[in-house]
Design goal:
Blueprint lengths: L2 H67 L10 E9 L2 E9 L4 E2 L5 H10 L4 H15 L37 H5 L2 E2 L7 E2 L5 H9 L7 E2 L7 E9 L5 E11 L6 E7 L18 H4 L6
């Protein structure tokens, strides 16, 4: 082979190596972008799916409340926070409705009832009295010159605006927010509790209480303020949709006004396996999404 041919062959080999190197470099640069784009697309798809099912859960909660309004007080067994389950088009729908007459109002309850509420969430009996007095001071309105602070709690000296404000109390910081919301409210505006509508932990504490003052009632009375919680689960145990709202319900007109909206629980458990689920016609007023 001539020297010219050898040089041409060497040049072609160099060009080939250069092209291959350029392709490898380009692939190394583009691959992370391709992976990022795919991950972004998958996340966006999941967010969109979650958003759609959350909207569906909102709709189901409104349907459950509207269906309930037609029953009036005769529907009270559904208003004690017990979870109802039904099936619709292959999905499991869990609904719980809690009238706030079965909860302790942080702004209206006397210290004795507040103490029983703190006992119901797991605080030691010897500590609940002092904690109740702190809650009383927390909500008590005072002038600026009268305001004081304790080393443990920065007193607000104004009404509670949300149950989560109890997290300002060191003794309650480790108690899950949902546990507190199952016992307390800021929407009932009452100083007593309707025992038939109380959750089991509070109901047991009230029944076992032997104080002389009447802090709860065996009678049923409804506040019209309801926590409506809806979960939509797939057949393989995936939480698809979630809605938890505190609403004001007019039992005569069925009108629903939202007072508070709560986010998803990060520790929401997979629902207990249920067989022979009924259709959702009775609970939601519909039996299919079609």
């Amino acid at each position: 082979m001539s020297d010219q041919g050898t040089r041409n062959l060497g040049e072609q080999g160099f060009v080939l190596v250069w092209v291959l190197g350029s392709i490898m470099l380009l692939a190394a640069i583009l691959t992370p972008f391709a992976i990022f784009a795919r991950i972004h697309f998958m996340l966006a798809a999941n967010v969109e799916e979650s958003f759609r099912f959350d909207l569906l859960a909102d709709g189901f909660s409104t349907l459950a409340l509207t269906t309930l309004s037609g029953r009036g007080e005769s529907g009270y067994p559904l208003l004690n926070g017990d979870q109802q389950a039904c099936s619709i088009d292959g999905y499991t729908v869990l609904v719980s409705l809690q009238d706030h007459s079965g909860l302790i109002d942080l702004n209206g309850a006397p210290p004795e009832l507040l103490a029983l509420g703190f006992q119901a969430v797991g605080v030691d009996a010897q500590d609940v009295g002092g904690l109740a007095q702190t809650a009383l001071a927390f909500r008590q309105v005072r002038s600026r010159s009268e305001r004081t602070e304790t080393p443990a709690v920065n007193l607000k000296h104004a009404p509670f605006e949300a149950v989560v404000e109890l997290k300002a109390f060191p003794r309650l910081r480790e108690i899950p927010t949902r546990t507190l919301q199952d016992i307390f409210t800021v929407h009932a505006r009452q100083g007593t509790v309707s025992r038939p509508l109380a959750r089991p932990a509070l109901h047991r504490t009230l029944v076992n209480h032997r104080g002389g003052e009447q802090l709860d009632s065996d009678a049923l009375f409804l506040s019209g303020t309801i926590t409506a919680r809806v979960e939509i689960w797939s057949s393989d145990g995936k939480l698809l949709g979630f809605s938890e709202r505190v609403v004001s319900l007019n039992f005569e007109s069925g009108r629903v006004a939202e007072l508070e909206r709560r986010g998803r629980d990060t520790g929401t458990d997979r629902p207990i396996a249920r067989t022979n689920l009924s259709q959702c016609g009775t609970l939601l007023g519909i039996s299919t999404l079609g």
